[in-house]
Amino acid sequence: MNSYSFTVDTPFPLAIAFDSTSDSLTVRQLIPSFDMSITQINPIRLVPTTLSTSLLRSPDSTSDTTSIDFGYITIDQARHILLLDRQDRMSFQLPLVGLWLKNVLSPTHPSLQTLCKRY
Predict the structure, then answer these.
(1) Less packed terminus of the chain by CB within 10 Å, N or C?
(2) pLDDT tens digits, residue range 66-117?
(3) Most distant CA pair in the chain: distance in Å?
(4) Which of 115, 56, 52 lies closest to 84 in space, CA to CA?
(5) Are 69 and 83 in contact (CB under 8 A)?
(6) Residue 44, helix vs strand vs coil
(7) DSSP class of residue 33?
(8) Judging by DSSP bridges, how do beta strands 45-46 and 80-85 pair with one another?
(9) What is the pTM of this model?
């Protein structure tokens, strides 16, 4: 019976044992226990504007789905989201919390990285 075992020095002790007669591998690790809790987040209201209405509307056959459009997102003290056009002067005066994008179909789209860097 050939048996091999060793311990790996990691932040959480790891012991590995191999028994060649039964071809079994045993791995044991001491890890801390933890508790997890989930908290519901209330929905955040979107301020209805011409821009938000047009972005939420389903595209029709005449709309351009090839050009990428973007703008900024701000949030007020009442926790209402306001979408700003990229050329809106308010985007220089209000705190920005994110970007909105239109016609970006993939997270690997080349323009997406450029827009995030610009933000």
Answers:
(1) N
(2) 778 899 999 988 889 999 998 999 988 999 988 888 887 777 777 777 777 7
(3) 78
(4) 52
(5) no
(6) coil
(7) -
(8) parallel
(9) 0.57
